């Protein structure tokens, strides 16, 4: 029996991290499992108490939250970022890189042609708190904003979801005439406009929507290009940033309006080198 309050060994950390990711994979694909039985098995293997194991599961959720990854429902993130646990998660993700890329988003067999409208929540309140030092290295290595920016298929599915949402919203408002005029600009004309979807509100005013999609959580960071940022400043009346998150399970959304630096902390992420 492990002594109460003693540090977890590397072997114990590896066991609980592997067990957590196994349960997470089952949850994401809808397979049943019993948390109490998994906990009991870990008690046998580690000699740790039920409460200690549950708390460690919540610590893992907190790290995954910062990495912009799904976490197990019922294991609410509990921030206590021990270096040994972060190292254990890093070892596991390094050995299983596909887990960080994220699960495939669930789509209908016929796409989103008949998708219902999304419910848009209030955006999260900005905290502007720096990452705790133990997390900074792993977040640099497994950058969720870079992951999502590279996943063009995910980005396209998010844009498609918003495109059909805008059409459905206008039809519901009795403006089928405007719904027919909604354009998926990035799909039809390519990137470069500074936004992805040209839509309207029921009064006919333009809505120029940039879509950012993640399989992560509501606070997962994202990249904004200089072109997009500049366009938001140029057209604050019409520019809207639609953020889709938890896209692998049940897409949820919120919307940001300019000035964007009132809603999020904007940091330069790249430097342009010229001669």
Report on this structure:
The chain is of the alpha/beta class and 275 residues long. The protein folds into 2 domains: 92 residues, no CATH class; 143 residues, no CATH class. 44% of the residues lie in helices and 10% in strands. The chain has 11 helices and 6 strands. The chain has a 6-stranded mixed β-sheet, with helices on both faces. Helix 1 runs antiparallel to helix 2. The longest helix is centred in the middle third of the chain and has 21 residues. 31% of the residues are buried.
What's the short version?
With 275 residues, the protein is of the alpha/beta class. The chain has helices at 10-28, 35-46, 50-66, 83-95, 97-101, 133-141, 144-150, 152-172, 176-179, 185-188, 226-234; strands at residues 120-121, 183-184, 197-200, 206-213, 239-245, 252-256. The chain folds into 2 domains: 10-101, no CATH class; 120-262, no CATH class.
Helix content percent band: 40-55%
Number of strands: 6
Q: What separation lies between the terminal Cα atoms? A: 65 Å
The shape is elongated
Describe this protein with a few key phrases.
275 residues; 2 domains; 11 helices; 44% helix; 10% strand
Layout of secondary structure:
Blueprint: H1 10-28, H2 35-46, H3 50-66, H4 83-95, H5 97-101, E1 120-121, H6 133-141, H7 144-150, H8 152-172, H9 176-179, E2 183-184, H10 185-188, E3 197-200, E4 206-213, H11 226-234, E5 239-245, E6 252-256
Parallel strand pairs: 1-6, 4-5
Antiparallel strand pairs: 2-3, 3-4, 5-6
